[in-house]
Amino acid sequence: MKKSRAFALLPVALLFGITLSACGDDDDSSSGSSSGSTSATGITDSDKKQVIETYANIAHTAYSDSLASAKELDTSIDTFLADPNDATQQAAKDAWIAARADYLPTEVFRFYGGPIDNSENGPEGLLNAWPMDEAYVDYVEGNPNAGIINNPETFPEITETLLLSQNEQGGEENISTGYHAIEFLLWGQDLSPDGPGARPASDFTTGPNAERRRSYLDISSDLLLRHLQQVVMEWAPGDDNNYRATFTTKDSDEALRNIFRGMGALSQGELAGERMFVAYESGDQEDEHSCFSDNTKADLIGNAKGIRMIYFGRYANIEGPGITDLVATVNPELDAGLRRQLDTGVAQLEAIPAPFDQQIIAPVESPGKQAILAAVEMLEAQGDIIVSAAAALGLTINIEI
Amino acid sequence: MRPHTPSPESSGKTKKSFPRSPSGRATSPSGPTNTTGQATSPSGPTNTTGQATSPSGPTNTTGQATSPSGLTGPRLSAAHSSPASDCATRSSKALLVRGFFWLIAAFVFGAAACSSTNEDTDLQVPLPSRETAVRTGGATTVFDETINAFARSAANLTTEQKRAFAVGNNFFNDNWVTAPASTTGRDGLGPTFNALSCSSCHFKDGRGRPPDQKSDDNALGLLLRLSIPGTGAHGGVQPVPAYGDQLNDRSIIGLPAEGSIGITHEEIRGSYADGTPYLMRKPIYTIIDPQFASLPENLLISPRVAPQMVGLGLLESIPEATIRALADPDDKNQDGISGRVNEVWDERRQETRLGRFGWKANQPTVTQQVAGAFLGDIGITSGIFPAENCPAEQKACAVAPNGGTPELDDHKLERVSFYSRTLAVPARRNWEDAEVARGERLFHQMDCALCHTPTLQTGENPEIPALSDQTIHPYTDLILHDMGPGLADGRPDFRATGTEWRTPPLWGIGLVKTVNGHTRFLHDGRARNLTEAVLWHGGEAEASQAAFLLLVAQDRAALIAFLQSL
Predict the structure, then answer these.
(1) Residue A1 lies in a domain
(2) What pTM value is reported for the model?
(3) How far is B15 from chain A (nearest CA, A)?
């Protein structure tokens, strides 16, 4: 990949920055130490603002794409519920997988209390919470009466309010809404060694509590749209009062720290740790990310691509300037190393044999399991390089999750 | 160690050099409190009627803080008009005492007026430097004010350790299922239990709360420990026949739970010296529908909520000698605070050791605490506690399928323990705020810091070097204090008496609301906010509580603002 053209202006910007800093750092005292590092690194606040703007554009576009594919999922689910059969069910499953491909890269926008996961109303826990105890929602092997769906006495009516109120009630795996709840309702438990879950379409017609299950799936899909819509709006341009307005205009270094943290935390904590090492060590199918659909490998790749898209500042028709342009200014070698790393990293994840669940249950010496461990190490190292890249810009971040 | 009678001089000789007006006056009335002993002691009879005697803490308040309210004669009658009949029964003795209070009150009020004008200049309590104030957990500290504030790993772990943390986190959150199940790694729930996972009660590694109403059955986080008088194995509690030492209010399908928790409340009213009234609720616990043998007459119940999980490894790394040195069972330094260590049984070492964890410091290590919770709360056996929690009378329990022997292997236990030891303490917020700083001074002035020790030093932790040699600010001394009859559970636990509780760490309390969406504090979550938590303090903390009652609203707010910055 070539270096982005957008920053061909960099030398000019650099010059400008030097001029500015020569004029004195009186006008940017709000960013404290950053004004010092600005002059030291030769990067101006305007350079940073451009990169932050790119980031916001990508966030808005990527979430919009997620919303669009979630709408298609919703349509497919409506079609399925109107006439539940193997074909309509498969179409809904395909739509879910397509929706996930759009959503996974956006996880790089997490981990700093932004629109997706702020403490007040960030919908992350309602959209994408995982791991999920499926018995909280519906029957499982050995427990035909499990879950909200099969407990009309406790939960007389399946409503939006009910699903929202039950999410994460009484435990972090008590997940009632979001992508994984929908995944479970479409696929069911994965009890087969070589394929995903195989829930019969009759669960939605003649099975016990079919009507309640139908309502559950229908409402879950509607909620998905609403929560994605909420995030899209916070990142939309041209709104003076949304999150983006603050993010792109206030303290640039604070914004950059958040951007770096999202990348690093996703790489090292979430991806290498929670999603891969845990499953690697436990060898338990329950611990793979998309355990009903066997979509785990695609999830991992989607996450890794999310990190890469932010670093390069490229997504769809958006082309930088990205974080890479800032890092290249201060440390070209570090930048080149990280660019290489992000590319080979995605390739390394792609090289893990599928399905993921069969690799984790295999013996430690098996090639699949070795490939997972190698990828874990790679993603951990990648997290450390991201920390170094931030440090090169004078930004101290931590990437614990 | 109530029977100390600190004279103003003896209290003056505490290490503090500030004017100490609040506690100065508070301690002096506390002399009379003892005098009033019988009159005031309604603290004890809390369980009798509501109003009159109720005010366990508060009555003392009425008793001793009558002094200040006595300042304004009219207000005295206004504020305490309700328990008029009670006043009458107190007879002339009380009147005499009250006269004495007036005298003190005059003195006190003068002092108070003084301190409120120049408190910021007068007080010599050294406040921490920026670095020490913010780095609550030393190098392990994380900066997070979000819903994940209690869920982060120590900032200084190695990559390898972060992996262990992630695995432990997973098991901490995992819902256990009934055995046998296809999810073989996590079956064996119960047969009787309180929760499906650790995170049920420690949601987001935070704090549980009691249920607000009967239908609120998702409000996990409160359990009842049970026993009968006497001493059991290794000096611990004597379990209740047919029930054991904890009420399991849930069970797997097909066999009964042990019973459920009933809670009623008794209202407790009191007022501050400035006349502002307050109302607290004292919970009274019963066991509904006990399913096995009838419960004994002499049943002892200790309600407990799940506290936030942060900083446990740091507390474990404090040298035993440090903690023992904080104890002062005979109050030799005459600061009004005694404090005793608990000595408890260590299952792994098979010996008696210093207790530091749990509301009564009845667990020696985090690992044993974790294994104890797995067994007692979820019904999961481990190498430390290999036997299912099925008293002989619970026959169906004993024959129910289990999830392996043990259900939680040593490796997983170690991971959860590692996780529990490396959950990081979040940094303080707003510590430079003027009100917060003033609150911090008041905290010291009122002697809160005598038990809520602000600063301690960890020793070497060869297993987790990240926790070694850290200067930390837990606001606890990890030892037991008599907290008076108002808070007493009446259930001894190893050396802890029925009125003693371990000083809980205060770090992180300002973020409970953010993480867990509530502000319920103390061992059973009875305090509905931090102010009530302060007001409930009695026993060794009586003088501090009395000092709090004397504060003007602005100062009370400052103290709370300080607590919220932790």
Answers:
(1) no
(2) 0.82
(3) 40
